[in-house]
Write a structure and sequence with these properties.
By secondary structure, the protein is α+β, with helices and mostly antiparallel strands. The protein has five helices and six strands. About 55% of the residues lie in helices and about 15% in strands. The protein starts with a helix and ends with a helix.
Length: about 220
């Protein structure tokens, strides 16, 4: 009997040990699965972050697109503005040959103003497109100081346009002083029709600012 009790005891202990081993194995297996799931979740989190990053990239692209659209809109507005200001004269389109060489005491801005007024006058006379050269008639250029106190320079010359067969008198009053001091406000640059005796291409039914204002258009 003592031997049988020992065997039962050993068997019971063995069963307990086996159960403990099974329980421990089960717990460890559960922990591994939890870790695996956690690891998988971490991967998902990383992918989510990556996706967020991509979304951020999309946001940047959207911003770029917005900037591009804004820029395009700005260009469209600029183009629209240019189109809307199609009546504006670009003085660079009406260069007077050698004027910058012979014109003393006149800054670049004043020369551009003269060229702009030439452009307006040519439009009054239905000249558009290629008008050809604009040349100063030989021996016609004159400049005098008409008021020494106000430093007013009066510049006069005749321009000829051989291609369109037209000629005009240019009269410009300029002072480096402010308009409040010089008294030069309007009508400081005039492109006028010549007397018929001065026309070298014949009469072209000339129109200018003074005539158009007198006629009311």
């Amino acid at each position: 009997m003592p031997d049988k009790r020992k065997l039962y005891l050993i068997a019971a202990v063995a069963m307990v040990v086996i159960m403990v081993i099974i329980i421990v194995a089960t717990v460890l297996g559960g922990n591994k699965r939890d870790q695996a799931n956690t690891g998988s979740g971490g991967t998902n989190t990383i992918r989510g972050t990556s996706t967020t990053g991509t979304g951020g990239g999309t946001g940047n692209n959207s911003s770029s697109s917005s900037r591009s659209d804004s820029h395009s809109g700005s260009n469209s507005n600029t183009s629209g503005s240019r189109s809307g200001n199609s009546n504006e004269i670009a003085p660079e389109d009406y260069p007077v040959k050698k004027l910058d060489q012979v014109a003393q005491n006149l800054p670049r801005e004043e020369i551009l103003n003269i060229q702009r007024q030439i452009g307006y006058t040519l439009r009054l006379n239905k000249v558009s497109g290629d008008h050809g050269d604009i040349v100063i008639r030989k021996n016609s250029y004159r400049q005098t100081m008409t008021n020494a106190d106000k430093l007013i320079y009066q510049t006069d010359f005749i321009i000829d346009l051989p291609k369109v067969k037209q000629s005009y008198q240019v009269k410009d009053s300029y002072s480096p002083l402010p308009a409040e001091t010089s008294g030069l406000y309007d009508y400081t640059t005039l492109i006028l029709c010549l007397d018929k005796s001065q026309l070298i291409y014949g009469d072209f039914n000339c129109n200018d600012r003074i005539k158009s204002e007198q006629r009311g258009y």
